[in-house]
Amino acid sequence: MTKKMKRKLIRIIISFILLVIAFILKLDNTIINNILFITSYIIVGYDIILKALRNITRGKVFDENFLMTIATIGAFFIGEFPEAVAVMLFYQVGELFQSYAVDKSRKSVSELMDIRPDYANLYQNNKTERVDPNKVKVGDIILIKPGEKIPLDGIVVEGNSHLNTLALTGESMPKSVTETDEVLSGCINNEGILKVKVTKEFGESTVSKILDLVENASSRKSKSENFISKFAKYYTPIVVIIAILLAFIPPIVLDTNFKTWIYRALSFLVVSCPCALVISIPLSFFAGIGASSRIGVLVKGSNYLEALANTEIVVCDKTGTLTEGIFKVQKVNAIDYSKEDLLKYTSYAENYSNHPIALSIKEAYGKDINEKIVTKTKELKGKGVIAKVDSKEVLVGNEKLMEEYNIDYKKSNDIGTVIYIAIDKTFAGSITISDKIKEDAYKAVKEFRRNNVKKIVMLTGDREEISKNVSKELKLDNYYAELLPQDKVKKVESLMQEKSIDGKLVFIGDGINDAPVLALSDIGVAMGGLGSDAAIEAADIVIMTDEPSKLASAIKISKKTMQIVKENIIFAITVKILVLLLSAIGIASMWAAVFADVGVSVIAIINALRILRVKKD
């Protein structure tokens, strides 16, 4: 509980004691009694009155502070002192409970926010100086001691340890690091001293980007939140006008007591306060975003969380999303060259590429590459690369590249990704590389089905045979193979036509090579965003690990969020209308009105917090 909440609690207790004393004493001297009531009222409600006055000067007249102030001061004027104090007292109890609920829901996000580093140990001239992370430059060496947060992204130059990545990934499994390994800000060093060479300034580091994402998530409002804001904007003035008419028209027309109808009008104002909706709906979405962040899924706004609940079609990239993306050279078919020479020319041609396939070929070659003999390297998207290696023209790529350059090649029937190589326009052989389906991909497909996803489709640039095998293994609804980047865009455009009006298409990929598709989809999900700037910036939702099943968990959280939002809207409006009618005809007193208002708010808030109990599995 915060200091502000504690102070409010103390005021509520003192006010309640004075109210009880006034009731118990029932002094004949009403002046003393009234002084006790007024004192109790001022202690508990002065901040509400000040807020109402401040908002009026800013042009924001019709809000809950204004309604409570008018209702309670009006009650004093007609001599209903106990009701006036009770209305303000119980309203503040509701406000306190609301603050507690918001604080509780924030903790799920604040745990993530706790990754913000307070300092960095700058290592210079064999000395360590504690400095602000913003003052550390790229290339500087920092020292991370056991138990400390890693303040900036970098590469380990000395030492080894295990890192706690829980705050970034939602997973408690420690990650082992040693020299030359990359480390990310926000992780905690569990053991050993690490010396790290900084590769990014603090403003560009992983922790900074994630914090910025979370802090700004609330700025993107959902349709439900926008509806409630508009509803409250028109609802409150209408209610005030009805209350004024209720206070003066019936006594004039029916020639009855003004006090009775003013009392009813004030009760009407109390119960009309839209607190339950205005607070519980944003709180529900905040709790949903918080619950998602705890499992390592960063949602950039309430609008995306709301849209995720209507997911009908999930489109998946293959490599790195459904498969491990860790390629291994399985077979080298060389023609007129030795296997070692074929690997050599291929590795040299792929020298400047960081694609997983290129990396696997270079790993299989296993020798240093003399970059001086590699010239005129050119990448052809979706086909391969051309390079001059030691004055020889080397083509490395798929069948399309061979056909484009009229190479008389021998097609391989090996299962896996086949890379064809031509040297000086003569076919030199092929290299077969295979990938493995993730165990988590099976779970993801199963969970998508359980969350009523109607269609699961895979898009890939890989060969037909490989794609067909992966699709069959995972029991997908459809797949499209041998696609160029522009072909993927066309396929997604086509799939967008298959969903219903309210349905959503979600694309999940690595967020690096699929930016156009991520942008085109209703919701773009970048997976494996841990350390990927492109993933964090390109997508609407970022999964910090390489587990596609976490998207299914996020869909589950979003569905639960929307269910609770609808429950709160229906419940609050139904009770409000019922008690408003009872207040207007004199059946519900001001006591009933305040209990209805506070009660509805408390129940709606408790209901909203249920989202935090949604688990990954």
Descriptive report:
The chain has 617 residues and is of the alpha+beta class. The chain has four domains: 3-110 and 218-285 and 560-613, no CATH class; 120-151 and 153-199, Calcium-transporting ATPase, cytoplasmic transduction domain A, CATH 2.70.150.10; 297-324 and 437-544, 3-Layer(aba) Sandwich (Rossmann fold), CATH 3.40.50.1000; 328-434, Calcium-transporting ATPase, cytoplasmic domain N, CATH 3.40.1110. The strands form four sheets. The chain has a seven-stranded mixed beta sheet with strand order 10-22-21-20-11-18-19, sandwiched between helices. Strands 2-1-3-9-4-7 form a six-stranded antiparallel beta sheet, with no helix packed on it. Helix 19 runs antiparallel to helix 20.
